[in-house]
Each structure stands twice: as C-alpha cells, then as structure tokens.
Design goal:
- This protein is mostly helical.
- The protein has one domain.
- 69% of the residues lie in helices and 3% in strands.
- It is built from 9 helices and 2 strands; from the N terminus they run αβααβαααααα.
- It has a two-stranded antiparallel ribbon with strand order 1-2.
Length: 225
Amino acid sequence: MCGSLDAALTAASQGEAIRSRKDAGTVVEAADALHRAQEFMSGMNGPPESEDEQHRLTSTLHALDHASRLAETAGEEAELGRVNNEPDDVRAAQLCEEAMRIAASVAAQVATPPAVRAAAVRQREGQGLPDAEAAFDATAASIKEALPRLEHCAKTLAELQRTYRSTTLSAVANGTLTAGDAISRADTMRRLEALARHAWRAAAYLIGRGAAETGTKIGSNPEVA
C-alpha cells in the first residue's frame, strides 16, 4: 500500500490528482490483511512468558493500530486531492512521497526473515555475482538509516500543517481562494500528514523502537503514540 501511495504521489508531481491506490483492490486488500492480523492477535490466550515477549506483543499491537489508521486514511476516498504549485503544497507531497517510499522499504526488510536474507545473499555469491549484499538491498536503505529519515518526514509535515491550515483558510477572506478550494487543500494536507505520521509510528513499532519515540510529541496531536 505504501508503494502504491509512493507511485501516486510521484504522478501527482506531474499535475495528476493524488490517487490513494493504483487499483481498487490495493487498499481493500491491505485493510483485509490488517483485519485478519487483528483477529489472529485477539485469539492469543494467556500472558507473554517473558518481558521480551510482552514488549514484542505490545509493539506489534501498536504497529497494527497505526497500520490500520494508515489504511483508513488512504481509503477515505479514491483521490486525496491535487498538488498545487504553491511551495508548501509541493513540499508536503514530496515529504509524504519520501515517507511512503521509506516505509515500504522498512516493511520489505521486516518481512524478510534473516535466514531467507542470508540464503539469498549466499546464492548470489555462489553464482559469482558481485556485491551480493548490496544487490539484495539495492532498493532499500538499512533500517538504521531509514527510521530517522521517516521520522523527519513526519515531523516536518506536522510542522508544515500547523501553519498551512490557518493560512489557507484565511485566503478565503481576501478572495484569493474560494471556501471549497481552501477546505479541499487543507484536507489534502491533513491526510498527507496523517499518512506520514502513521507510517512512521507503524515502522518504529515494527522494529521495536516505538516506545522510545512515544515521548516525542508532534505538535499537539494525541495520536503520535
């Protein structure tokens, strides 16, 4: 889903409307997978056997919650809106695009078990292919480098949104924008910020670093955790 949003935002930079899915099934499939994951987690009985398992369970539940909110935001409508040529609009789309690309990279790495990863690298080395490890990670930054970048995108978007809404709605008073256009632009900014924020929080919890970031507030948004 993040990969689909990344592609949609890239297309938006060329003046197209931001579509929240490449096809009708992307968000639906993601939402269904998340729902099944929630059902699986709900079926677990008994407390975790160790503190580490308890931490992993809590982190997984947080990640699942943020991923579900991400899917809800992406699936609100077929289109998020249109990126205007104003600097703040363009910047917001670029930040969200980068966030989706990084989140997809983190998800791909998390979904690949270490044993599978090692086997793939050994296979490439056995075939005499150069830079086997680099080739395997050609499209994904390391998680260690990716998470701070993802956090930066989310926080910068949050800061941008704080002033964007009031500035945009104020433009109605001086006749620069119609009420409909102003509301549409503010809503697009809201959704871009929400996508980046939930992608960051889901990724952080997936790799067990969510709790360390919980105390860092983004504006006054209570959903940061």
